Amino acid sequence: MSKSEVVELRVLEEGGVVPCCPPITAGELSQADAEKMAAMFKALSDPVRLRLFSKVASHPGGEACVCDIANVGVSQPTVSHHLKKLREAGLLTSERRGTWVYYQVAPSVVAAMAAMLDLRG
């Protein structure tokens, strides 16, 4: 049985993109930095989660109601589970409006992931 640990990711202030981890070319990642980045990439490694993330990111206005993105070939409870995992990884933010939940991509976190993978260092 594997031992799982929840890693809490820092939410960055909007406008200022500060990578959570140094660029991959800056040197070997610390254990803590590797765990932070792995949590984000792990959340995106599932095809359903990646499709949901893409649907939110490409939705007009930059946000999507769960009712507009739920058609990914799995049941609604499974969609909710995957959206929860994306939120826990810090990749999505959500806001409840009445009976619906609206999702947005957390741009600073995605920018931090891209900066970490930037080979131009």
Structure in a nutshell:
With 121 residues, the protein is an alpha+beta fold. The protein has helices at residues 31-44, 47-58, 66-69, 76-88, 107-117, and strands at residues 63-65, 92-97, 100-105.
Write a structural description.
- By secondary structure, the protein is α+β, with helices and mostly antiparallel strands.
- It has 5 helices and 3 strands.
- It has helices at 31-44, 47-58, 66-69, 76-88, 107-117; strands spanning 63-65, 92-97, 100-105.
- The protein has a 3-stranded antiparallel sheet.
- Strand 2 and strand 3 (100-105) form a beta hairpin.
- Helix 2 crosses helix 4 (76-88).
- Mean pLDDT is 81; it is low at 1-19.
Element-by-element helix/strand order: HHEHHEEH
Quaternary structure annotation: single chain
Distance between the termini: 38 Å
Roughly what percent helix? 40-55%
Number of strands: 3
Principal-axes geometry comes out as: elongated
Content-based structural category: alpha+beta
**Low-pLDDT residue spans:** 1-19
Our Rg estimate from Cα atoms comes to 15 Å
Task: Quote the beta fraction.
Answer: 5-15%
| Widest β-sheet, arrangement of strands | 1-3-2
Helix count, DSSP H or I runs of 4 or more residues: 5
Largest beta-sheet characterization = 3 strands, antiparallel
Give the overall pLDDT as a whole number. 81
